[in-house]
Amino acid sequence: AQTVTQSQPEMSVQEAETVTLSCTYDTSESDYYLFWYKQPPSRQMILVIRQEAYKQQNATENRFSVNFQKAAKSFSLKISDSQLGDAAMYFCAYRSVIFGNEKLTFGTGTRLTIIP
Amino acid sequence: GAVVSQHPSWVICKSGTSVKIECRSLDFQATTMFWYRQFPKQSLMLMATSNEGSKATYEQGVEKDKFLINHASLTLSTLTVTSAHPEDSSFYICSARSSLETQYFGPGTRLLVL
Q: DSSP code of A58?
């Protein structure tokens, strides 16, 4: 079974600065998807970014980018120019492409605080 | 991005009653929907996966007779908590997967059983 580990329960960053959230995973599969989701105080899960494992290029969405290291099974999220609205729980998630096993496996989350 | 709605957003009920939660994909068809439960300050726990027109697949430890899931159409799935008890109080979240292989989440339903 796949596992996802987020070793940083809490992180804080000064507004306008850059922060990196860590995520590692364990799998024996060669193709899969990885996601970062954000859960603000409203508790609505919001997709931040996604990465297909077969793509070597790191995904980028505006101020959000990932550092995907497939061999190391690492998938960190970098938030540039942090804004107050970025404060939330961030969950890393893995999804298999194998039919019948396509559920998301979540990490335990990292609570990000933005310091004004 | 795609929109998933969930209704009601919160519900309070008496112990022993049943509660139905609806999950709708508003602007896409979802062949697969998922139901999660989230306890305070914890991650999401998958309860079951439902495919349109098929019986739901429940995760280990989830009582299928207690948490009834119906996925009658490509845009609607329902979760019914039968004979609810205080320990069923939680935050329930549904999600739907689009054809682009990404899961979009509903806003969640807070259930409080008195």
A: P
